[in-house]
Amino acid sequence: MSKRIGITLIFLSVLYVLNAQQKWNYPAVDKKSYALFLQKDWKHLIAFNDSARQNGIDYFNLQARTGIAWYNLGKYRKSTPWFEKAWKNDQQMEWLQEYLYYSLLFSGRSTEAGRIAKDFTVGLQEKINYRRMQPLRLAFEAGFSFNPDFGQLQASQMHNGAGVGSDYGEGFLLKNYYFGSLDYSHRIAPGLNLNHNFTYLGVNREEQLLWGSNYNFPMDIKQYQYFLSPHFALGKWYFSPSLNLTWGNYDLILGNYDPNTFYTVTRKYSDFIFSTSMWTHWGNISPGAEINLANINNSSFTQASAWMTFYPLSNLRLYLTPRVYFKSDAENSFSYNTFGLSGGFQLGQFHFYGNYLDGEMENFVESGGYVIGNFPGHSTRKFMGSIYFPFAKKYQFVVRYINQDVIEKYQVYRNLTRDNFIEYSYIKQTITAGISWNF
């Protein structure tokens, strides 16, 4: 009896294997895959194609259909690898070229999309408005920053708290500043883009001096910034070196040898930042790192950071980026400096972006060397919120709000040497608005 059961089980196993081999063959897989494709049953199509590959069947149409299924589900970062596999097998299909291009574009990999488009058909290049060299984006943004605690600090009589007495006391209060920024990006070769930015800031501060009596002098600072950054991709790796040149001037009132007498000097300053960033894309994550070599406020330092961006929906509708900053200067070796957390999400046509920083930010560099904290004093936290919304297809508006604490010093000098000081703090609030034109 047991022998018959054993023979029966062996026979059934052979039938099962033969049936499985008969089921998982190229004609049957292609027929079923194509039927699911026509039905637009994307989830079942993905599951079926995965099973076919587990059984050793994979070919051009299966790869392309898997990519199209993920694409139609809005999972662009999952669709791209399948289009790339199909692309390696056949680069002549115009429909595949278009899917690959837009899957890269909607995944945040526009530089790769621009590089690969050089091999597209002329008709598709015209359809997507692609040229080997072309302008990409022009943007203008303006803003106003103010210190809501200015009046309170102005009347606080800090020289009493600092114990100036018959010595020389000096402090500076930010009142407000305004700025305008012009940004231009263009492609100079397939896979190589160049970004330029010019920014002007007009800063209004008040200089408080106690020298014999208490005096308040207005202080205007004019600051200019030029930012240059090429952006290119080598294989799957992105690189972005950048150079930030910042310069300005202001008139400073200084006490003369006798109390109640002063003279004016014109001060000029210049800062520079050289940065190099690199990052890549692995499925739904994008790790990266950056190093900055800078001289700000006559202080040379090196700053480094590393980050990891997560795309839980496999597209740009939701992303989150934790980032850690390290810093070293002439007095301190590399050590932890600041933690950052940024992210964005999209609701309908509106895109929301936020950024939070927490740490010891003095002469701080962020955003690839573009945004610098070269104001006097230091900061321990900063957060920003932005709203982007499109207009007439090629235009996009942005509105931002920035809130940052600033800590500065009221300094006492005795015999021309720094002596005692007290710290004071305020909240710097900034509102900006801008428009960009995508060519």
Textual characterization of the structure:
25% of the residues lie in helices and 54% in strands. It contains ten helices and 16 strands. Strands 1, 2, 3, 4, 5, 6, 7, 8, 9, 10, 11, 14, 15 and 16 form a 14-stranded antiparallel beta sheet that branches. A two-stranded antiparallel sheet has the order 12-13. Helix 2 packs antiparallel against helix 3 (42-54) and helix 2 runs parallel beside helix 4.
Mean pLDDT: 91
| Distance N to C terminus | 81 Å
CATH architecture of the largest domain: Beta Barrel
**Largest sheet data:** 14 strands, antiparallel
Superfamily (CATH H level) name of the largest domain: Outer membrane protein transport protein (OMPP1/FadL/TodX)
Described by the principal axes of the CA atoms, the overall outline is elongated
How many domains make up the coordinates?
A: 2
Low-confidence stretches: 7-22
Helix vs. strand class: alpha+beta
CATH class of the largest domain: Mainly Beta
Share of β-strand residues: over 45%
Described by its quaternary structure, the protein is: single chain
**Count of strand segments:** 16
- State the helix count: 10
Bin the helical content.
25-40%
